[in-house]
């Protein structure tokens, strides 16, 4: 039985109508579909270059900066119509700029509109952001079949800078490039990047099949069983995902064709 794979690239603003991936690098204006709500001091969320390490993926991040008056601001995702196995989770990276001035934030959900009063469900209570870029996952399966908005609520006063980056709406069934499973078996692939051939070996088991997929999940080619050297001259330059099957395991790797 064939399994269809879905892959998302953080550099693309939208993967499909039911998913999105946003790194805020395309412009310094609010991305299409997103909402910024400024309910506190004069400083709201902006999309810009900050100090060193102020973006998980350079150059920009969504950020809100210091004010003596308390923030009451939201960074709100586009509408998410939650579908099981398609877009039932949200992942994001967050960082506080200065460990001596820790910014607090909460994550909330609206099931109606992207307005401050509508964010009545708290997913993550207000707490300090980490001092290094950290990835968090929000489970959206309780909202399957509903259209929702996720709001990141900044609440601090007299601190420094709160940053968000690489916010992705997908599913655990989807496989983002930076989440490709790193093999813990004895499967070895080389060279990577590859040029003419790809060598694959396994000290424990025979390799039964090697399948090549494009980055959007389309099957490109399947190797001859037990082949240890596979010609890749027929592949165009780019990034591929390969699945290596043995008698008792299946490993996934990201490879680059020069």
Question: How would the blueprint of this fold be written?
Answer:
Blueprint: E1 7-8, E2 20-22, E3 35-38, E4 46-48, E5 61-65, E6 73-76, E7 80-81, E8 89-96, E9 104-110, E10 121-128, E11 134-139, E12 147-154, E13 161-170, E14 175-176, E15 187-190, E16 197-202, E17 207-213, E18 219-222, E19 229-231, E20 238-246, E21 250-257
Parallel strand pairs: 1-14
Antiparallel strand pairs: 2-13, 3-6, 4-5, 5-13, 6-12, 7-12, 8-11, 8-13, 9-10, 9-12, 15-16, 16-19, 17-18, 17-20, 20-21
Briefly summarize what is shown.
This protein is mainly β. It has strands at 7-8, 20-22, 35-38, 46-48, 61-65, 73-76, 80-81, 89-96, 104-110, 121-128, 134-139, 147-154, 161-170, 175-176, 187-190, 197-202, 207-213, 219-222, 229-231, 238-246, 250-257.
């Amino acid at each position: 039985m064939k399994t269809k794979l879905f892959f998302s690239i953080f550099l693309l603003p939208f993967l499909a109508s039911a998913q999105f991936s946003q790194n805020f690098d395309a412009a310094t204006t609010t991305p299409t579909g997103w909402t910024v709500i400024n309910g506190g001091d004069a400083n709201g969320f902006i999309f810009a270059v900050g100090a060193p390490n102020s973006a998980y993926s350079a150059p920009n991040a969504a950020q809100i900066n210091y004010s003596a008056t308390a923030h009451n601001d939201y960074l709100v995702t586009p509408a998410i119509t939650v579908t099981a196995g398609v877009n039932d989770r949200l992942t994001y990276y967050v960082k506080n700029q200065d460990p001596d001035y820790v910014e607090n934030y909460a994550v909330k959900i609206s099931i109606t509109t992207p307005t401050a009063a509508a964010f009545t469900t708290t997913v993550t209570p207000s707490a300090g952001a980490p001092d290094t870029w950290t990835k968090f996952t929000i489970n959206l399966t309780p909202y399957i079949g509903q259209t929702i908005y996720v709001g990141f609520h900044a609440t601090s006063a007299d601190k420094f800078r709160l940053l968000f980056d690489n916010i992705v709406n997908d599913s655990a069934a989807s496989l983002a490039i930076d989440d490709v499973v790193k093999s813990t078996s004895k499967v070895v692939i080389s060279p990577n990047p590859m040029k003419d051939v790809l060598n694959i070996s396994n000290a424990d088991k025979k390799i039964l099949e090697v399948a090549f997929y494009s980055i959007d999940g389309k099957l490109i080619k399947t190797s001859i069983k037990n082949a240890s050297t596979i010609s890749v001259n027929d592949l165009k330059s780019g990034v591929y995902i390969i699945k290596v099957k043995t008698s008792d395991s299946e490993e996934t790797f990201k490879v680059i064709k020069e």
